[in-house]
Amino acid sequence: xxxxxxxxxxxxxxxxxxxxxxxxxxxxxxxxxxxxxxxxxxxxxxxxxxxxxxxxxxxxxxxxxxxxxxxxxxxxxxxxxxxxxxxxxxxxxxxxxxxxxxxxxxxxxxxxxxxxxxxxxxxxxxxxxxxxxxxxxxxxxxxxxxxxxxxxxxxxxxxxxxxxxxxxxxxxxxxxxxxxxxxxxxxxxxxxxxxxxxxxxxxxxxxxxxxxxxxxxxxxxxxxxxxxxxxxxxxxxxxxxxxxxxxxxxxxxxxxxxxxxxxxxxxxxxxxxxxxxxxxxxxxxxxxxxxxxxxxxxxxxxxxxxxxxxxxxxxxxxxxxxxxxxxxxxxxxxxxxxxxxxxxxxxxxxxxxxxxxxxxxxxxxxxxxxxxxxxxxxxxxxxxxxxxxxxxxxxxxxxxxxxxxxxxxxxxxxxxxxxxxxxxxxxxxxxxxxxxxxxxxxxxxxxxxxxxxxxxxxxxxxxxxxxxxxxxxxxxxxxxxxxxxxxxxxxxxxxxxxxxxxxxxxxxxxxxxxxxxxxxxxxxxxxxxxxxxxxxxxxxxxxxxxxxxxxxxxxxxxxxxxxxxxxxxxxxxxxxxxxxxxxxxxxxxxxxxxxxxxxxxxxxxxxxxxxxxxxxxxxxxxxxxxxxxxxxxxxxxxxxxxxxxxxxxxxxxxxxxxxxxxxxxxxxxxxxxxxxxxxxxxxxxxxxxxxxxxxxxxxxxxxxxxxxxxxxxxxxxxxxxxxxxxxxxxxxxxxxxxxxxxxxxxxxxxxxxxxxxxxxxxxxxxx
Length: 767
Ligand SMILES: Nc1ncnc2c1ncn2[C@@H]1O[C@H](COP(=O)(O)OP(=O)(O)OP(=O)(O)O)[C@@H](O)[C@H]1O
Fold this sequence. Notes:
Helix content is about 50%, strand content about 10%.
């Protein structure tokens, strides 16, 4: 059993001696423990035995070490310390942005990050060190964005905005944040933290770059809002002396609190005239080997062991009763013993968690309309206000399609061939022949069949000169007719299988090609052979023979799918459509999130209560709209303007393209979650582009790869989708065909995998 006796009203000034909890008398040690647990929950913030390090467990960079801190409700707590001592880290743990490696934090009676605690969320107002504002927003839009996230009504936001504009001497609400001065931007940032009149205001260096008059008015405001006793402020500042106006000061060094007391008490205790001197004195003592008094947690509250207790008190040795106190356990004990509420509150007092849980709706619903509205509007507004992004989103895909269709897949033209015709002795290009059944100048008749639009015939008198021209890169090949060509060919046709070898050899057209360029080499070789076939057929039919006799005895009928003369463009186009949409989405998403993070915007939204899931959801919605626009443009240009084959159901083409865009967006999420810097994200996005392009069967069939690589290729997000789209477009296959639906299935699986990965990485990073 325990009982308490309230002998004096609680002091907002945080003086332990005046605290009502210090008046509690205990009948047993376990009662004392339970009461201390309640006491911690009653504070605005209570940090116990906190450890935090960055980096891996093997090579940790310890930032917080055995840190204890208590912030009483209704007070201003000034957290002071040298740069890099861990203030921001501590604050980010308090607001639930990061997790401790060990130790406990209670904020407004709950543990940050737990459901229903309201932290992160609207119970806290957080002003980070960075400006953390959207530069392309006006002041009013900034306030609307955060107001909606905090669940405020538009009318409320407008009213509050008027007050804040006036109070913080801000310029017109329609001014763009990026056009404000540094000091004005800081004030807008401060206004955002004050926007929803939170119970706990956490300000990380709010007075940097603010003129002395405004600085004083900020402090006056902080004193005023805390005077009612229900608002608490934690503030860090490098202007140590301004912290005299705080009710309690925590002096921090190397991840520990050296002292935690009201400013006057510190000055008195250390016999100093300025807080700076106190800090220096304490720092010196710490440097001399742990001779600084420890901040202890005891039944009477948290405080500095007075110097009179000998200054050699070792570092933070917590009261044994408090270390390792298990809140859940104490809760159960209280229920049994005292009929105290299951939340651990004292009898007769309404449950703090119940009364203060202003964010309770969040326990049951995934999100709120206000948050989603704010996030989606923010995404669109940022895109709309940024001309470069707009061009990137809509002009780039169109440009890529146009360039692809113009530059890829067409037959090369204007290819120079060196012709040496000793059969007719042509030097100036004039090569006469008779198109009737004439057996004269057959070399000229053949040459006339060579495609004039793709091949330019340059005549040479000497074979060696012609070959030298190829060696010099002046021609792609040599076509040579010997002096007996026509006669030999006629003899060969007449003699049939009795023709001698010499006749057969001299009836051949001799060709030397530059095969260094496979596409050109293959095309020339194809054209040279096809034109011979046409020449032979023409000659035979003019002499009333069956032209089929001149063809090879294989008859290629109309293809089942595709054209007799297939276009490379039709083969590559499906992969190109998907690659364009996929990688544009990667680029757009990965950089968008990283920019928000490096500018502190993501942190601010998280602390305001936006979850990673909500951020992802808002981006999915925004990207979906963008993707629909991009898909429409890409398909219109590919199919309608450039006539890429589309034999299947266009609805499936659209669906698959949009899904691939979403897949690219999710890959972008993974990159942005994994990379700290935009530079790394760009490297990763670019680095993944070529392997994906090369291995996905976009430009070359995967059947041409070694076996192992084929398996790797099949596992990539673009491979099965490309094959599926190709089957829809060129073969017109339906969704029921395995080759088609596997493209959809693999894309959906990849989207799921990327989303899970992103959320896992974000959660891990928050820790
Ligand atoms: N994300 C991070 N990853 C690794 N180390 C970090 C990270 N954030 C901070 N640190 C390191 O942790 C230490 C404490 O940083 P923190 O920002 O908390 O200090 P601070 O007291 O707020 O400094 P300042 O007053 O200059 O803002 C520094 O050494 C810093 O380099």
